[in-house]
Amino acid sequence: MLFRRLADGDEEAFRQLFHHYNRLLQPFAVKLTRSTQAAEEVLQEVFLKIWAHRSKLAELDNPKAYIIRIVSNESINYLRLLVKDHRLFEAMKQLPAAGYSSPEQTLAYRETERLIQEAVDQLPAGCQQIYRLSRDENKRIPEIASSLNLSDSTVKNQLVKALKIIRLHIARATPLLLACLLSKF
After folding, report:
1. Cα dist from 80 to 75, 87, 185, whole Å
2. Burial class of residue 116 (count of CB atoms within 10 Å of its CB; 0-12, 13-18, 19+)
3. Is 1 helix (H, G, I), strand (E, B) or coil?
4. In angstroms, what CA-CA distances link 129 with 42, 86, 121, 136, 172?
5. Total-model pTM
6. In 87-98, which positions are buried (b, 16+ CB within 10 angstroms) versus exposed (e)?
7. Helix axis angle, 141-148 relative to 152-183, nearest 10°?
8. Residuewise pLDDT in 10s, the chain (185 residues)
9. Cα–Cα nearest to 75, from 23, 33, 18
10. What is the rounded distance in angstroms from the CA atom of residue 139 to the CA atom of residue 131?
């Protein structure tokens, strides 16, 4: 059985599984994410998880249902990340645009900028380069992909990775930031 071979680490079995299920799951992922590009990204994550947890497949009664559940969960996670990124971006856009900002708001804005820069500086070199081209030079994914000779999905994956790392870095520092701000009163 294919799943037993995969559980044993057979790369050819994984290749066969990938080609078979990728075709079947693509429309489902597109329906959930409403984007072909997002669906490709979700399916990449799904197959990475399948490979990472391949030993579980042999124990399952219904591996196909397990794979479909992973696609569903990864699609939901992807959409949640998009919403969080959009909210953070909108919140950051509003801070400097406000006509009046209190010293606390200015301090919070500067501290958030510092945390973002600190997180970006800790990114792997390639991921950092892609992030900076996207954010500092306002280049779109196809432009970045073309200039770095990468696929669009690779660039998008690196941007998602960068944003996730930045969010985690800010989230870890937020209690400290709040403590600093509250101590000023």
Report:
1. 9, 11, 35
2. middle
3. coil
4. 23, 21, 10, 10, 24
5. 0.47
6. ebeeeeeeeeee
7. 120
8. 778 888 888 888 889 888 888 888 999 888 888 888 888 888 988 988 888 888 887 787 888 888 888 898 888 888 888 777 766 666 666 655 545 556 766 777 787 788 888 889 999 999 999 999 988 888 889 899 999 999 988 999 999 999 888 888 877 776 555 555 444 44
9. 33
10. 10
Burial class (CB in 10 A: 0-12, 13-18, 19+), 110: exposed
C-alpha span between 80 and 74 (Å, rounded): 10
- Residue-level pLDDT at 57: 78
The radius of gyration of the chain's CA atoms, rounded to the nearest angstrom, is 20
CB burial of residue 152 (10 Å; 0-12, 13-18, 19+): middle
Report pLDDT for 104.
67
**What is the enclosing helix (H) or strand (E) of 112?**
helix 103-121
The Cα 133–Cα 1 span in angstroms is 46
Note whether 21 and 67 are within 8 A (CB): yes
